[in-house]
From TrEMBL:
One of its GO terms (cellular component) is cytosol. The keyword Translocase does not apply. This is Aryl-alcohol dehydrogenase. GO terms for molecular function: oxidoreductase activity. InterPro entries: AKR, AKR_Detox_Biosynth, NAD(P)_OxRdtase_dom_sf, NADP_OxRdtase_dom.
Length: 330
C-alpha cells in the first residue's frame, strides 16, 4: 500500500487508514475477535495507519490488544474532545480534560506515545491558545508526536495555525474531515487552505455512512449501516434527494467499470487531494472489498461524469473571484 507524507510533517501514512469506530460497538459494530483479525489483515496488506477516538466505546482497548508486538509498525491516531462523561471536565479541549484524555488513551492503547493526537472538533468554549499550549506540552513531554485537527471551519483552522506560529508552538499537521462524492464542501475553503499551509488531509466517511455502497436507495431503510445510527442532523447531509441521485449514479458507473460501488467511491478518493482515506469494516468481506479499491483505475470519462453530477454549485465569493482572477491573467 502506498505511503504518503502527512502534510509537511515527517510522518508517512498509508493511503487507506483503518477506522476502528466499529470495534466493539454494540448493534452495528463487530466483536473483539473480528476486530483484531481486521487489524492484522490490514497490516498484512501493507497498511500502517489506525484511527480511533476516546469516545468510540471499547475501540482503544481493542486496538491496544491488537497491536501487541506490532506497535512499532503502526501510526496510531486518536482523538479527544467529545463528551466521555457528564462532568464539566469530561469534554472539550481545555487543559484539564485534554491532559486527562491523553493519559487515558495511552493507558487503553497500551503505548507510551501517540503518533497523531487530534482534537475531535473545534471547541468554541475554550480559547484556541489554551488548547494549543496543552498539545504543545504533550509533544514536549514525549507523549504525543504530532497534533491534528478534526471538524474545523476553515477560518478557525487558520486562526489556530496563526496562533501556533505567533506563539512558537506546535502546529496542526493535518485536518480530518468528512469528504465523499455526496459531501464535497471542503473543496471550497479547506482544501486550498491545507495546500497553502502544508497540512495533510484525512478523509472520514468516504462511503457517506453506507450511502455509496449500493445497499441504500430512496425508500429503503439503511438497516445494518452506520447511516441508521446517525443523528438526524448528520443524516440530512447525505440522505436526501441529491444523495440518493448520486448513489444511483455511482451504482451505474460501478457496473460499467466492473467493480462495486464502494470500490469506485474509494478509488475516487485517490484522484483527489486526500492524503489518507479512512475505511471502516465490520466484516472481513467488507475489508477485502475496500482494499481491492487500491487496484482500480477510473477512466477519465467516468471521472468527468462523476464530477459533473457531484461537483459543487457556484457560490459567492468563489465564483466571483475566479472571474476576477481570470481577468488578471489576460
Amino acid at each position: 500500500m502506498e505511503l504518503c507524507q502527512l502534510g509537511r510533517s515527517g510522518l508517512y501514512v498509508s493511503r487507506f487508514a483503518l477506522g476502528t469506530m466499529t470495534f466493539g460497538m454494540k448493534d452495528w459494530g463487530c466483536d473483539e475477535e473480528t476486530s483484531i483479525a481486521l487489524v492484522h489483515r490490514y497490516l498484512d496488506a501493507g497498511g500502517n495507519f489506525l484511527d480511533t477516538a476516546d469516545v468510540y466505546g471499547s475501540s482503544e482497548d481493542i486496538v491496544g490488544r491488537a497491536l501487541k508486538g506490532r506497535r512499532h509498525r503502526v501510526v496510531v491516531a486518536t482523538k479527544a474532545g467529545l463528551p466521555v462523561g457528564r462532568g464539566p471536565h469530561d469534554k472539550g479541549t481545555g487543559r484539564l480534560h485534554l491532559r486527562r484524555a491523553c493519559e487515558n488513551s495511552l493507558r487503553r492503547l497500551q503505548t507510551d506515545y501517540l503518533d497523531l493526537y487530534q482534537v475531535h472538533f473545534d471547541d468554541p468554549t475554550t480559547p484556541i491558545a489554551e488548547t494549543l499550549d496543552t498539545l504543545d506540552d504533550l509533544v514536549r513531554e514525549g507523549k504525543v508526536r504530532y497534533i491534528g485537527a478534526s471538524n474545523f471551519q476553515a477560518y478557525r483552522l487558520m486562526k489556530a495555525l496563526a496562533t501556533s506560529d505567533a506563539r512558537g508552538k506546535e502546529r496542526f499537521v493535518s485536518l480530518q474531515g468528512q469528504y465523499n462524492l455526496i459531501v464535497r464542501t471542503l473543496e471550497r475553503e479547506h482544501l486550498p487552505l491545507l495546500e497553502e499551509e502544508g497540512l495533510g488531509f484525512i478523509a472520514w466517511s468516504p462511503l457517506a455512512a453506507g450511502m455509496l455502497t449500493g445497499k441504500i436507495s430512496a425508500g429503503a431503510e439503511p438497516e445494518g449501516t452506520r447511516l441508521g445510527q446517525r443523528e438526524v442532523e448528520l443524516d440530512a447531509l447525505v440522505r436526501n434527494d441529491r444523495g440518493f441521485a448520486i448513489a444511483a449514479a455511482v451504482v451505474k458507473a460501478a457496473t460499467e467499470l466492473g467493480c462495486t460501488p464502494a470500490q469506485l467511491s474509494l478509488a475516487w478518493q485517490s484522484t483527489r487531494p486526500v492524503t489518507a482515506t479512512i475505511i471502516g469494516a465490520r466484516t472481513m468481506a467488507q475489508l477485502e472489498d475496500n482494499l481491492a479499491a487500491l487496484t482500480i483505475a477510473i477512466p477519465e470519462e467516468i471521472l468527468a461524469e462523476l464530477d459533473r453530477l457531484t461537483g459543487l454549485p457556484d457560490e459567492y465569493p468563489g465564483a466571483f473571484l475566479r472571474t476576477m482572477h481570470s481577468w488578471l491573467r489576460r
